[in-house]
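Team,

Forwarding the record for the chain on the shared tracking sheet. I've put the sequence and predicted structure together so nobody has to dig through attachments.
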Amino acid sequence: FQPTGLSTKYQILPQMLKKAGYATHAVGKWHLGYCNEDFLPTRRGFDTFFGLWQHSTNYRSREIVCSSYKFRKEMIGYDLRRNESISYDYNNMFAPNMYSKEARKIIKEHDESKPLFLYLPLMSIHAPLVDLPPKRFRKLINPQGRMGFEDSSHELRDSVIASVDFAVHKVFMELKKKGIYNNSVILVTTDNGGGPPYSNVPLKGTKETMYEGGIRGVSFINSPLLNLTGFKYSGLMHITDWVPTLLGLAGVPVPEDLDGYDVWNSVSNNNTSPRNNIIHNIDGDPKKGTWQATMTSDKWKLIWGQEYLLKQTQRLQSQNTQLYNIMEDPNEIYNQDKNFPEIVVRLKDEILKAKNTSMIKADYPEATKKGWPINFDGFISSGWCEST
């Protein structure tokens, strides 16, 4: 319930594609702001939207609880929208199944005279994992188990993952049935590693840490348009590279001020990446005396300051340095900062240069009770913050 959203001064991918004649649809998790109507997906380039505005909900009831305060019933709110109206469609259907079914409906009804951009963030496997997946997915993981709350949390997680696999599979099949698969590019990706208690072994760290287990996201591309298939791409990539890559595929001019690179030639032909560096994070809080900055440059990765994002305070780590050769040591076992001090100095200089010239100040305001559902008849709603 933070009074913020993705600033409207930025044009985002669906807006660019819509101008180029694409039909644009979003199904699933938004999480780019809703406290002002200007932040809503239907105001940011999507022709239609079906899903949740917040970061996650109960997988069946569609309810969410504000977690920034000690629990009170006034925090509980319903969060499912069709465009900008409250929706009760798919009553009690497990969330991945629901969003997959909606996506397939869009594909089935799509006017083929227009190209299609379909954004499908399923929300899964985000917490809260408190509702049982359909029995067929539970039995896949543990044929003998009841898969209730008393069973393994890992088995519950795995059954949710199985439901995601099935949801994506059904979308693939609908594309083929519609006859548009052969001219499609399907990107499946994630935003971060698993959080506690889930393990990212053999990678070190979890969600919200700067170790590879927290920031190295798994992705895959499926497309008949790829020149080479069936390989693992080892080049350096960042999530910002997907926007210019997809714009290039669509034949849309790429704005010069974008941070990313068009990597289609690299991933389609297993060629060298155009990217040498990634600045993962720069953040400091002078009041608390905390600092966190992380950068990858070719084979080297520097973690400067605390290992967690600043949402967790680790003052005693503010001057720490960790340097890893992530090509040879992706599990970050051997800290090389004492062996290569010149690399540490160089990467620190690069970070400070970026901080002073191109980095945008973190936008992480305090949560407010203004957005509590009790103020809006029990619904997650807009209308309680200023647009930016």
